[in-house]
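Q: What residues go here?
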């Protein structure tokens, strides 16, 4: 049996958005709330990625340096 995922709780907020953007979105039939939600979700994901990369900067640099010096581990087993 498939389990349904619960709908996210929605919350009304007040925000200021460029009036021309609102006009254009309405003219194109764009759901402004959903578009704003998608933009916020994208910004959150980008910031989480940036923070993870910053927190793991030394490990990433170390790994990249290892590959530069030694090549990819198990590279001889690659089929491409």
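A:
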């Amino acid at each position: 049996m498939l389990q349904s995922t619960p709908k996210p709780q929605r919350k009304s907020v007040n925000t200021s958005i460029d009036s021309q953007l609102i006009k254009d979105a309405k003219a194109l039939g764009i759901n402004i709330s959903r578009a704003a939600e998608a933009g916020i979700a994208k910004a959150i994901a980008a910031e989480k990625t940036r923070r993870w990369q910053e927190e793991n900067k030394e490990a990433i640099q170390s790994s990249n340096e290892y590959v530069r010096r030694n090549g990819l581990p198990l590279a001889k087993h690659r089929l491409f």
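A: Context that may help when evaluating the design: The chain is about 60% helix and 0% strand. Helices lie at 19-27, 32-55, 57-70.
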